[in-house]
């Protein structure tokens, strides 16, 4: 690692430190630094008289309050973020000259923001939606933004249609209902009449739209970019983030309940994990295609509604992202961070992907209105760690104090500086691609297949995942009031799979399709969450106990679960402590009224010798709900009677064992599985 890169690791954090202010134990002042003697009463003409315009402190205070809100993002308004670092595993020198991708071990500071797409800033984390996964790399060559989603494809092929899809999926304009969902007429009317959306909609109806945690979801760059090496040779590239904990999701009934119980569930999960030292980790993978193979596939690699199957284009893992520090101030960092796919460094360039080409304009345009002018790059969270010098001047929010009289090129007064850099000096040089065509408003014939990869996705799903997709269509399309739109959706998706379309058509009262289907038999196992990594670490277990519990055994088990990286919270009737049979106390984290089974990955039923009717009733409710959501359930000693009463003892994912070590091992294995789909739930 170069000395410059070593210094770069902490440079961003040091840079942010200079902007931080701790107001505790300080005297109140105005924004100009004037000490304030009164902050309770405005200046008046007499005690009951009118307020005077002369009161500059009141005017400053109320003016700032009136302007505290900035326009929220049109999409991705609801976001959560964290600082971290990216460490390179393998040199990408054969493919790109990007400096931060040259030397294994190089660490680059980053800021990553996760988001939902559709809902307003105050909407719930837990909705059926695409999720954003945007990462800003603070490299020594400038900021590089990898702007990704948790699904590898998009609704549209050309960015000119982006306003249309967003208008259609947002709340309907006549009543601004419904919030943060596509389960309404305008969205499905748009889908049925814009059939390029078929593949993305299949992903949206899948479990991928309900991530259990930001720590457990993938990120995909969606668009096709170019790597360019120091010899000027280019390769097409796509980027993937792969969570170390695997890809896991909620079930729909559970998701709806979590949205009501804890609107901030994903945000809280990310924040708490970092505070506890359970740092989210993602490996960066790249798919690379040589330019000579641009047309070697049965799909167009520039089509954003298509993915590159990993069986055809292998995924190369090249580094790891670790998020290890929460923001100090949500607004200043998470809300004001500005991403842009056009923020690249030498060695990373663009393709002719028509969705990407439009994004290169749109992202800058939207930041101008959100952040008040052209100087959003000077906000602390957006400021690069390397120096920047140019002839840009003035504008809203200017923070740089430029010295000298010259602000133009060419010039002689400053020896024609700032000067440009050659490619050898690190200057960005656009990749040279020969263009020989007519100006047209048209779409390539190679973009016109809308159903083959939607069928590939369907073929790749497990039986459980397929049923969830049918259930999702049934719910979403069932919310559509127009029977004509419902029927159009059924006919459209009959081209993906006839049995699937027939199943949800019956559920929504539409006429089942008489023909359709697809001849595509190809599948990609990498697309199924059934094949994901299964790790128990950081999973949260609700431990239900009451007074008189077998404290020695339970303490041993809880220590064993902690040693496996599993987090637990104690649930009981009342706050305070529960006392075991040997007078050992356990702190209660929640009562039954302040938490819910849907907020846990698993339940461990301990019980106790002292029991009330309310405790029995609440424990039974928690148990049945967790069982219904296919979650792991464990019980020892006094807790086993609940499983016996509810005829659950022999069900998959239910662990009963009075041998402490065996219980810990078996329960950990059940937790790692995430769900036990072979459980019979009535």
TrEMBL record:
Residues 1-33 are annotated as: Disordered. Residues 29-417 form the Catalase core domain. Residues 1-26 have a biased composition (Basic and acidic residues). It catalyses: 2 H2O2 = O2 + 2 H2O. Transmembrane segments: none annotated. The keyword Nuclease does not apply. GO terms for molecular function: catalase activity. It is an enzyme of class 1 (oxidoreductase). It comes from the Bacteria. Keywords: Heme, Hydrogen peroxide, Iron, Metal-binding, Oxidoreductase, Peroxidase. Its cofactor is heme. Its EC number is 1.11.1.6. InterPro entries: Catalase, Catalase_AS, Catalase_clade2, Catalase_clade2_helical, Catalase_core, Catalase_haem_BS, Catalase_immune_responsive, Catalase_large_C. Decomposes hydrogen peroxide into water and oxygen; serves to protect cells from the toxic effects of hydrogen peroxide. Belongs to the catalase family. HPII subfamily. This is Catalase. It comes from Virgibacillus natechei. The lineage of its organism: Bacteria, Bacillati, Bacillota, Bacilli, Bacillales.
């Amino acid at each position: 690692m170069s000395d410059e890169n070593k210094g770069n690791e902490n440079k961003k954090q040091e840079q942010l430190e200079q902007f931080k202010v701790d107001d505790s134990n300080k005297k109140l002042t105005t924004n100009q630094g004037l000490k304030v003697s009164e902050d309770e009463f405005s200046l008046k003409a007499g005690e009951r008289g009118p307020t005077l315009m002369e009161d500059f402190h009141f005017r400053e205070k109320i003016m700032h309050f009136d302007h505290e809100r900035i326009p929220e993002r049109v999409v991705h308004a609801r976001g959560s973020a964290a600082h971290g670092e990216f460490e390179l595993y393998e040199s990408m020198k054969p493919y790109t000259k990007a400096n931060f991708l040259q030397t294994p071990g190089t660490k680059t500071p980053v800021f990553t923001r996760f988001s939902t797409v559709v809902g307003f800033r105050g909407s719930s984390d837990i909705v059926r939606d695409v999720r954003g996964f945007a990462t800003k790399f603070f490299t020594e060559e400038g900021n590089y933004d990898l702007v990704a989603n948790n699904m590898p494809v998009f609704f549209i092929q050309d960015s000119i249609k982006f306003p249309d899809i967003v208008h259609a999926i947002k709340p309907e304009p006549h009543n601004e209902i419904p919030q943060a969902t596509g389960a309404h007429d305008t969205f499905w009317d748009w889908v049925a009449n814009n059939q390029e959306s078929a593949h993305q909609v299949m992903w949206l109806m899948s479990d991928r739209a309900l991530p259990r945690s930001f720590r457990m979801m993938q990120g995909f760059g969606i668009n096709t970019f170019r790597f360019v090496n120091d010899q000027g040779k280019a390769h097409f590239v796509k980027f993937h983030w792969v969570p170390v904990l695997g890809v896991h999701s909620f079930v729909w009934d559970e998701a709806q309940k979590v949205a009501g119980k804890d609107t901030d569930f994903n945000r809280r999960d990310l924040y708490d994990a970092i505070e506890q030292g359970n740092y989210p980790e993602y490996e960066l993978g790249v798919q690379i295609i040589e330019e000579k193979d641009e047309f070697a596939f049965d799909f167009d690699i520039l089509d954003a509604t298509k993915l590159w199957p990993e069986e055809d284009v292998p995924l190369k893992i090249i580094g790891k992202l670790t998020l290890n520090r929460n923001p100090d101030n949500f607004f200043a960092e998470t809300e004001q961070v500005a991403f842009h796919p056009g923020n690249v460094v030498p060695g990373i360039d663009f393709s002719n992907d028509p969705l990407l080409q439009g994004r290169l304009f749109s992202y800058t345009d939207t930041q101008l209105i959100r952040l008040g002018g052209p100087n959003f790059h000077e906000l602390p969270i957006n400021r690069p760690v390397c120096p920047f010098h140019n002839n840009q001047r003035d504008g809203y929010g200017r923070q740089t104090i430029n010295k000298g009289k010259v602000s133009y090129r060419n010039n002689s007064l400053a020896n024609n500086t700032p000067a440009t850099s050659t490619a050898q000096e690190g200057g960005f040089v656009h990749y040279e691609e020969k263009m020989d065509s007519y100006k047209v408003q048209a779409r390539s014939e190679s973009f016109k297949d809308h159903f083959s990869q939607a069928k590939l996705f369907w073929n790749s799903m497990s039986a459980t995942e397929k049923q969830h997709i049918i259930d999702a269509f049934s719910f979403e399309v069932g919310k559509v009031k127009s029977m004509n739109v419902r029927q159009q959706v059924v006919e459209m998706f009959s081209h993906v799979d006839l049995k699937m379309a027939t199943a949800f058509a019956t559920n929504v009262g539409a006429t089942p399709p008489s023909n359709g289907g697809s001849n595509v038999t190809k599948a990609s196992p990498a697309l199924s969450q059934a094949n994901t990594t299964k790790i128990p670490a950081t999973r949260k277990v609700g431990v239900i106990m009451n007074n008189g519990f077998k404290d020695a055994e339970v303490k041993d088990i809880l220590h064993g679960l902690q040693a496996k990286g599993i987090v637990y919270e104690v649930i009981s009737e009342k706050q305070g402590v529960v006392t075991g049979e040997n007078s050992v106390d356990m702190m209660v984290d929640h009562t039954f009224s302040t938490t819910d089974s849907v907020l846990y990955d698993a339940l461990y039923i301990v019980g106790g010798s002292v029991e009330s009717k309310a405790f029995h009733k609440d424990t039974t409710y928690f148990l049945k709900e967790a069982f219904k959501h296919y979650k792991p359930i464990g019980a020892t000693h006094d807790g086993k009677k609940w499983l016996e009463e509810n005829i659950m003892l022999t069900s998959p994912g239910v662990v009963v064992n009075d041998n402490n070590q065996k219980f810990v091992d078996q329960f950990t294995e059940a937790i790692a599985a995430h769900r036990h789909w072979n459980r019979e739930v009535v």
